[in-house]
């Protein structure tokens, strides 16, 4: 099976995502929400399909402004389901809107979606999946794993010899911080 590092470089859609976003830590809640929404929409489709539609998703979901999306009602749902530029799946659209409301609650509870993720880090993949299933809609093992890998919470986005990996390590992703802490005596 080919790794993303083997497929993405030089590709007009995969290349920029691989080189500039995939695996790097993300601090902005709207950017985290976008990544979660894109992963949800990728389910059953190719990542290339999602990347090609990314700009349309950003327009349709108003830049993934969490408060705006959480307030969407039936008119906005109908608008999204009628928008041929995005993936028009009723369950996925409903999940993105619902999850915006969940993120609002996490922001009230923890200060930000990122703070909530940081609070639960590090978990292994299975524990993350259980947490996401309890918290969000439309979040199975593949969606959760890719979301967390793409935002720096789980390792594995790039080969160790991929030139992007060194930049990710320099950015200090959560998975690297947890490995460093685990290597200290008594976890100190």
UniProtKB/TrEMBL annotation:
Pfam families documented for this protein: Adenine_glyco (PF03352)
Listed name of the protein: DNA-3-methyladenine glycosylase I
Source organism per UniProt: Billgrantia campisalis
Transmembrane portions of the chain: none
Highest taxon in the source lineage: Bacteria
């Amino acid at each position: 099976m080919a790794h993303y590092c083997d497929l993405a470089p030089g590709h007009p859609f995969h290349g920029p995502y691989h080189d500039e976003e995939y695996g790097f830590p993300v601090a902005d809640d709207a950017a985290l929400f976008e990544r979660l929404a894109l992963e949800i929409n990728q389910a059953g489709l190719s990542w290339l399909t999602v990347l090609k539609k990314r700009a349309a998703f950003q327009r349709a979901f108003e830049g993934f402004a969490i408060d705006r999306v959480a307030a969407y009602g039936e008119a906005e749902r109908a608008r999204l389901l009628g928008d041929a530029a995005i993936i028009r799946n009723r369950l996925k659209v409903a999940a993105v809107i619902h999850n915006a409301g969940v993120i609002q609650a996490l922001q009230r509870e923890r200060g930000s979606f990122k703070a909530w993720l940081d609070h639960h880090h590090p978990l292994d993949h299975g524990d993350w999946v259980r947490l996401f299933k309890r918290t969000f809609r439309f979040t199975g093992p593949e969606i959760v794993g890719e979301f967390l890998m793409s935002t720096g919470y789980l390792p594995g986005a790039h080969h160790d010899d991929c030139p992007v990996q060194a930049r990710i390590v320099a950015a200090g992703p959560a998975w690297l911080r947890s490995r460093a802490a685990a290597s200290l005596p008594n976890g100190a």
